[in-house]
Amino acid sequence: MTKMYTCFDKKVVVITGAANGIGKATSTKFAENGAQVIILDRDQKNGEVQVENLTINGYSAEFFRTDISQHQEVEKTIAQIISKYGEIHYAFNNAGTTGAINKIENCELDDWLNVINTNLNGVWYCMKYQLKQMSQQNFGVIVNTSSISGLHGVRNQAAYSASKHGVIGLTKSAALEYAKTPIRINVICPGWTETNINQDKAEAVHDTDPLFLSNHVVGRSGNTNEIAEAVLWLSSPLSSFVNGHTMVVDGGRMAL
Question: Domains plus CATH for the chain?
Answer without folding.
Answer: 12-251 (3.40.50.720)
